[in-house]
Design a protein that fits this description.
With 206 residues, the protein is mostly helical. The chain is built from 8 helices and no strands.
Amino acid sequence: MKPKNLLLSAGAVTLLVGCGSLGGSAGFPSAEQAVASSWQNMQPGWEKRLVQDDTQKICSAARDKPSKADAERVEKMNAAMKVVYPASGTLIGDWKRGEAIAQSGYGLRVGDNNPNQKPGGNCYACHQMTKQELSYGTLGPGLNQYGKLRGNSEAIVKYTYDKIYNSHAFSACSNMPRFGLNGILQPEQIADLVGLLMDPKSPVNQ
């Protein structure tokens, strides 16, 4: 899941390429119309994902490699956005629930329409998190021993929560989704992921 990039179906991509070369000639839809029409039968509200916010516009224009000035602008813009914390006030949740969230890739995909199933973080797609994991992505840094190496000070716990909530406040045009800001994960889910990373009993810290 990568909210800052527009997710196009194979059909939309085909139409987009074809229409782009035709320039919206008579009888053919424009690129924008082709993309929008491919989302007509998706879940209600998904069409909003086609509208970029200011951060996404800057990052897209720079191909995720912004100038220093633009990077500082993006980080400042996102740092000013409100971070919502769990109602309980506890930022370290249940690591076992966090492990399930990290493993789950459910959510924001075509066919993911079960209202009773919450989206997951799909963390293993980009990070190594435990020594036991045999299959993991390397797009993001390894997180094995995360809490063991960093400690569990209040500042580190808050940083970890905030980074998962809105990664762009710390690294402009990061490949990491803004899980909390974009409503992919709820505050309690993010706290459970913090638990996975910080709890000494978590497999991450073994």
